[in-house]
What we know:
The chain has helices at 31-39, 42-48, 54-65, 71-79, 89-96, 113-119, 132-135, 142-152, 166-174, 184-194; strands at 3-6, 13-15, 82-85, 101-106, 128-131, 159-163, 178-181. The strands form 2 sheets. Strands 5-4-1-6-7 form a 5-stranded parallel beta sheet, sandwiched between helices. A two-stranded antiparallel ribbon has the order 2-3. The chain is an alpha/beta fold. Helix 2 (42-48) packs antiparallel against helix 3. The chain contains 10 helices and 7 strands.
Amino acid sequence: MTTLLFDLGGVLIELDGSPLKDHWLETPVSYADAWLRWGQSPVVKAFETGNMPADKFVERIIAEQGLLISAEQFKQEFTRWPKGLFAGARELLVNLRKDYTLGFYSNTNELHLPWLTKDLGLESLFDYCFASYEIGYFKPDTQGFAYAADKMGVDPRNILFIDDNMINVEGARKAGLHAEKAFELEEVKAVLHKYGCTG
Length: 199
């Protein structure tokens, strides 16, 4: 394995709960169902592939999901959804980068990406940054994984991808990558150990 490709939220970045908060909904849904609704939303996909501006996204997602929250409050809470790197994640990446090419591939958007890459400093920790908002591909579409492999100049069979959503893991596998599901840093480390990748 020469290249490690990571999802961000739930894998290296701590999120403030699910994408659909209980207090936004008339009838709360489970964590898994919230992610399913989010990932299948055409509004989310349009926004996170750069095809919808933030203000329109806020208006449309509130209507689509029937959210009981004002546009202003939703935007404030949504913008703060990524909280920061899990404890130990930065050190792990620094050590892994000594022996592996590192990339991230995240479904993300104009409200989160600048903070993730600049303020949090992810650009300095990775050799390649693939944000759905910039590249126009949305996980689990196989084209996005093929795009990332091509840009990194690596055979997909030499890439290990780690994500906390199984649907994205399956998309990566269909594209020929090795892929595993992991939630939070201890599970990530266990996957790396399974593949003999030490950091």
